[in-house]
């Protein structure tokens, strides 16, 4: 996942520019995820990035801990939490080797298509086993991914350009492998500056993992009650019990 770390280390300072209104997105995503969590749940956001989900859930009263492969991203998440007077302890960590004691959390969260950065079944399985280990008995796993069942069928080559309030434009180019199971992503961020434009390009790779593939790997890792609940979250969500 070294490429993923470089991607998010580089993106951390301007990640919020992906959103038309980052603060509104923080609140909206937390509101969509909150019905899946019992009040006061101890949450580990193990792909917290700069805090988009973690900040919102902390603001709703959940004790949240953040971890992420990118130390630059988690440092920013900590600063954003402090600026909002929120408690958000953070640590840089690989989700395949979480630095927490067994049974530490009621909920483990990995949202916004984080798990598909793991490119093999062995890696997803390793992460799933770690997530289950740090959950208390009866705890819940909550993940979100892109709708890869549809995307593997259609194999889009790009995303539409999106322009936020300060004029920054973002879009992605996707290059699929021959069998349509994986793709390389180029993320373009075009910012207005000095009467012209400054363009940044970042690259990462993804496994376009289907619902059946992901659900099966969670079962193999010992999870039960695997389901895809209807939510208002912007991506499909899968939830499972730690057993």
From TrEMBL:
Domain named Methyltransferase: residues: 43-139
Name of the featured protein: Methyltransferase domain-containing protein
PANTHER family from the UniProt entry: METHYLTRANSFERASE, METHYLTRANSFERASE DOMAIN-CONTAINING PROTEIN
Keyword Nucleotidyltransferase carried by entry: no
Keyword Transferase applies: yes
Keywords of this entry: Methyltransferase, Transferase
Entry superkingdom: Bacteria
GO BP annotation list: methylation
């Amino acid at each position: 996942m070294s490429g993923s770390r470089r991607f998010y280390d580089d993106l951390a300072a301007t990640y919020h520019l992906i959103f038309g209104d980052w603060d509104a997105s923080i609140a909206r995503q937390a509101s969509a995820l909150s019905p899946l969590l019992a009040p006061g749940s101890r949450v580990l956001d193990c792909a917290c990035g700069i805090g988009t989900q973690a900040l919102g859930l902390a603001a709703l009263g959940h004790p949240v801990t953040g971890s992420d492969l990118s130390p630059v991203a988690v440092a920013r998440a900590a600063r954003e939490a402090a600026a909002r007077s929120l408690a958000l302890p953070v640590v840089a960590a690989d989700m395949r080797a979480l630095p927490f004691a067994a049974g530490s959390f009621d909920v483990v969260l990995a949202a916004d298509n984080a798990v598909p950065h793991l490119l093999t079944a062995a890696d997803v399985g390793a992460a799933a086993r770690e997530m289950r280990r740090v959950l208390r008995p009866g705890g819940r796993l909550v993940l979100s991914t892109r709708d890869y069942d549809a995307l593997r069928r259609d194999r889009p080559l790009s995303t539409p350009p999106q322009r936020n309030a300060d004029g920054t434009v973002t879009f992605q180019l996707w290059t699929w492998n021959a069998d349509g199971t994986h793709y390389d992503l180029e993320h373009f961020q075009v910012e207005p500056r000095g009467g012209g434009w400054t363009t940044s390009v970042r690259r990462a790779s993804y496994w376009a993992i289907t619902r059946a593939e992901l659900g099966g790997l969670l079962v193999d890792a010992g999870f039960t009650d695997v389901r895809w609940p209807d939510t208002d979250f912007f991506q499909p969500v899968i939830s499972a019990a730690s057993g």
